[in-house]
Records
---
Amino acid sequence: MNYHFRTAELSEIDSIWEILQQAIQRRKKDGSTQWQDGYPNPEVIQKDIEKGEGFVLADGETIIGYSAVLINDEPAYATIEGNWLTNDDFVVMHRVAISEKYLGKGLAKLMLKNIEDFALSNNIFSVKADTNFDNPAMMKIFETLGYIYCGEVFFRGSPRKAYEKVLHKQD
């Protein structure tokens, strides 16, 4: 397998949107309210990419995963019912999705590890994320990778479970 993680290009919006639509349908099938309100959408992805914040996981030339990766840019995280582990610079991930054809191969974990490497390469030692209360698969991935549950944050009026992982300098 030739997996690599890189910034997305505008020409890849259709492939990325297809992966996100699959994830939106999976969330719906699982009975989740997450991503069932017209968000995310192609305009959101286009903005991610234009700002240099859209990232893809690719298998050779094939896009198999997507995530927005932002530095210090999540106003909703300023207010948490609970406490973050750190108050320093942080990387935040949103819109994490893996292609249906590649599910069950540990690729969401691989993408999170790549996001952690991205943080470290920018001398940032905290990764923050959130997920819906009805997304046990994502919560399990966070817990497996050592993310700590910190409390609740609110997005578009809904509470979300907030997690943080403190990274350590590479030797």
---
Amino acid sequence: MRLTRDSEDANDLLQDTLLKAFTNREKYTDGTNLKAWLYTIMKNTFITNYQRMVRKNTFIDTTDNLHYINSMESTTDNGAYSSFAMEDINGAIKALDKAYQVPFMMHFRGFKYHEIAAKLDIPIGTVKNRIHIARKELKSKLRMYSHLD
């Protein structure tokens, strides 16, 4: 468990260790500390399995010009999608009723609820309610972007 930190992996490691010890039993010499011999097999098996896993997850670019490695330096983002999204967001905000749009935009710009209430001369509960309704309406109108969460 100290090596793997997972009970299933620990059981697999123990099974691999005992199998290797059994198949290599002729290499064990009498008088040698059996526990130390088994632990050495276990530790080496763990290290080998770990290195194998790391190698398996390593990507090696075998193209002649190292296309995959070098391609990330020359990529650019297409700003069209974010431009369309911003147009949709701004349009949805402009379509809000002024009673909801004004407190929402003030809150968006960093005003606190009590500052908005004082500025618009309405109760703080009304400010919170209008911002909540504005968010709800915007969420409904911009549902097409919900996959970006």
